[in-house]
Design a protein that fits this description.
Two copies of one chain form a homodimer. The first copy, chain A, is of the alpha/beta class. Chain A is built from nine helices and twelve strands. Chains A, B: GO terms for molecular function: DNA binding.
């Protein structure tokens, strides 16, 4: 059945949003809607304009016989600023302060709306990098990894601190947790990564960077490559950071003594990605 | 700036898809696009028709002053059938068989495309139920809980078998793992649930149902209510099931002896939800 432009625009928008970073040939749409390629091209030009104007992302055109369109999700500078300020406000609630100076984050990291924006923010940073997989460590990093993986449309893999019979053979490494100085073990199923793959490390919280460093060693064991490190929040740490090249959306400072206080501000994400985030608005 | 219909259709589609089960007042769209309510109503009628025709979901209209529109994601019978058959085919690969008759699922449960469909399938079942939170147990249930929570647009909470300093005070229960007959402990942060909430339990795999039963007791401890139980796959179990009211997308049968075999077929999901899934097509 031949379709009307309005129906095509709605269905194409849905189709593209569900498949970020995927090249869709024009012939696919042309067959799906029984419409001429020229009409499809016009439709895509309209979608491109609206996506740009509403800061949804970029609709990239790949010319030639093997070409098509590809939707690249992005976030604009205003929405990024707004989200980070809102999160800083929500983090700075003293009710979140747990014994030992830990911060309660599970409510935020279980809210679809929050995870969606975290995923968009982090995915925007790596839109031009070759990310084949997103890696995190169980448990609290998982929702972040899953959301980023959706926006980059690549699989995510979960490193574990405990051995599980449902993972099959694993590769393990020892690592030093910076904040406690203890040597611990982490492992990943052998089937999870292949040599040469580009891996993006994400986590909910980073203090000394020991856990992230462990994941980096694990990636080396697989002869894969660390593409980047992005965390939701970093905590203040009095000591040598084991990881220096990373971005954080937020920075949290806690005091858990006689006086309790929690201070949250923007991490280095906005500063590091300013030019990129402004690009979408231009 | 007054917008054209085509721009509105694209942006409204995106806006609605990102906010399932959320009532959006017509005045919101009318202001966002500086367009008359009558034009917005016509736009929504077009979106409603396309969503229905392409089996994306239902666009519900709530009349009156406090009214608006609400997008309810659904999956149609054909797409549900197709996805479950595809998964059964992928599960029945003997390479997935692990020592002890366990099945390797981490690749599937780390693939955005697969999680998206699992989320849509399970969310469709509960579109008319009052689900306030989705619950699962760490680690492998998390991606499923997150995906379902996206489509129902409610938070998800993670039960843990190990105690963590980052969860604050917890409520714990003991439970009997049906397959091993061991008594174990699981716990959930006190802040995760409130009395009276409706909770949907999801998990990746169920054998005897001991873990699911543990989650049910935990929900009782919070004076909350179990709305339903849905798992990705159920395994064959020679013994009394501890849970009888559940749905499974798949059913897996493994033999790990001298001869190794793995057999996968559709679970009871399709049969239980046939009428509901056919509704979208009508």
């Amino acid at each position: 059945m031949k379709t009307r432009r309005s129906d095509r625009l709605i269905d194409m928008t849905r189709y593209l949003l569900e498949r970020p970073h995927t090249l869709v040939p024009l012939t696919f749409f042309s067959q799906r809607y029984e419409s001429a390629k020229s009409s499809i091209s016009e439709d895509l030009a309209i979608i491109r304009r609206t996506f740009k104007q509403r800061q949804t992302g970029i609709l990239e055109t790949v010319p030639g016989a093997a070409g098509g369109v590809r939707y690249i999700p992005m976030i604009g500078i205003d929405e990024a600023n707004e989200f980070i300020s809102e999160m800083a406000g929500r983090l700075a609630d003293t009710d979140r302060l747990l014994p030992g100076g830990y911060v309660y984050l599970s409510d935020l990291l279980g809210t679809p709306e929050v995870l969606r924006q975290i995923g968009r923010l982090i995915a925007t940073q790596y839109l031009d990098s070759r990310v084949d997989a997103v890696m995190t460590v169980a448990t609290k990093g998982i929702p972040i990894a899953q959301s980023v993986s959706q926006y980059l449309n690549v699989p995510f893999v979960i490193v574990r601190r405990d051995s599980k019979v449902t993972e099959g053979s694993t590769v393990s490494v020892n690592y030093v947790s910076g904040s406690s100085d203890r040597v611990q073990k982490m492992e990943l199923s052998k089937r999870s990564l292949r040599a040469g793959e580009g891996v993006l490390i994400v986590d909910d919280f980073m203090k000394g960077g020991g856990t992230v460093n462990g994941m980096k060693s694990l990636i080396e064991e697989f002869d894969a490559e660390t593409v980047g490190v992005s965390v939701f929040a970093e905590g203040t740490f009095n000591g040598d950071h084991m990881v220096d090249d990373y971005t954080s959306l937020l920075k949290v400072d806690t005091v858990d003594g006689k006086e309790k206080s929690i201070h949250a501000a923007a991490g280095n994400y906005l500063q590091r990605n300013e030019d990129l985030l402004k690009e979408l608005g231009n």
